[in-house]
Amino acid sequence: MSHSLSEFGEYLNFFLIFSSLLGLLYAIGELFSYHRSRKQVLLGVIFLGASYILFNFYLLSSHRIKSFPYLYLTDLPVVAGLGILLDEYFLIALEGKFRSFRRLYFKLIPIVLFFVLILIWNLLHETDFMKNAESTTYSLEDRPVLLITITTLTYVWCMLKILTRISKQIRWSTFRKNTTLKIGLGITIFCLALSLNALRTIAFGDHAAYQFSGIAIGFFFCFLYVLRQSSPDFFLEVRKIVEEEKKERISQISKLDHNLVRKQLEDLFEKEKIYREEKLNLRDLSEKLDLTSHQLSEFLNTEIKLSFYQYTNLFRVNEAKEKIEKEPDRSLLAIAYDVGFGSKSTFNEAFKKETGKTPREYREKILKKHPIR
Fold first, then answer.
1. Is domain 258-369 given the CATH code 1.10.630.10 in the classification?
2. What is the pLDDT, as a whole number, of residue 38?
3. What is the pLDDT of residue 245?
4. Do the two domains 2-248 and 258-369 of this chain adopt the same fold?
């Protein structure tokens, strides 16, 4: 039994150091990318921090921490720093916002201070630490509990901020039907779960908690590799969804029955031929539909993909074409007035935009095919 446990421990230690090196490889890939952006630099530093944390887990799990006693618990300030960097990364990935580097530095200064304080604590307690180095647990007296608690809660706070930001940006109904968002939410919840496990570590101080976190992060790195290979634009997709959600939230037509509005428009233009009214404008048309001008304009632009004037002129030009074909000898200006145009110039401009020809050129083409006898 002891042999099996020892063998398992060796496999575990190998996995932890392998995962640490994998994180380092990710960091190098991001930091030395040819087209390096601020987001990639942040991601590279995040991977570097995660790699250091895994290395610390490896030292604890293998008891090699005895050779590096000053590094004991130095992973915790790094965890807090990762929380701040992850918050910054998600802000860029989800909203495209960039905070100033100075603001980020001010947030990281206390983390660096905590790192130095833990190094000092390790220096002052090196003898006590070496006595307990073979133990699988450490009592609360053996650790700077206040420093550990502050750094861990900093990370928890950052994760909760990210979850709050996601919940504000994206509706639950969108989450339910989008796999990309489910994966993104799963990643965030995973990061939060790790912080809760860190709180458990504070309470009990056993190596199993460190080992569990190390295994989880290691598997997460493997999952991340597969995700990056299968969906290299993963966060770009999330960003697009967030932008669509923003538009939907401020949209003035989200609560309208789009099919009904479309049907009413078709009736007015195809049956009643409202476009023949020369002075027809957006306001008059919106009143007939019981909509505001803003609602109708947004509906035409987003659903029909045409502006009010493009949509109106489309019907006018189509009827003008029919009249030219049926009555090629009739005055073009008379036809223009019939279909709703107020002048020859606007008629010519709209007609050429729709057909690529002026009304005169179009009539000449018709006459060549069907000459008048």
1. no
2. 81
3. 67
4. no
- For the entire predicted model, the pTM comes to 0.60
pLDDT digits (tens, 9 = 90+) for 29-51: 888 877 777 888 888 888 899 89
Return mean pLDDT, the chain: 80
**Does domain 2-248 match CATH 1.10.260?**
no
3-state secondary structure the chain: CHHHHHHHHHHHHHHHHHHHHHHHHHHHHHHCCCCCCHHHHHHHHHHHHHHHHHHHHHHHHHCHHHHCHHHCCCHHHHHHHHHHHHHHHHHHHHHCCCCCHHHHHHHHHHHHHHHHHHHHHHHHCHHHHHHCCCCCECCHHHCCHHHHHHHHHHHHHHHHHHHHHHHHHCCHHHHHHCHHHHHHHHHHHHHHHHHHHHHHHHHHCEHHHHHHHHHHHHHHHHHHHHHHHHCCCHHHHHHHHHHHHHHHHHCCCCCCCHHHHHHHHHHHHHHCCHHHCCCCCHHHHHHHCCCCHHHHHHHHHHHHCCCHHHHHHHHHHHHHHHHHHHCCCCCHHHHHHHHCCCCHHHHHHHHHHHHCCCHHHHHHHHHHHCCCC
Domains in the chain: boundaries? 2-248, 258-369
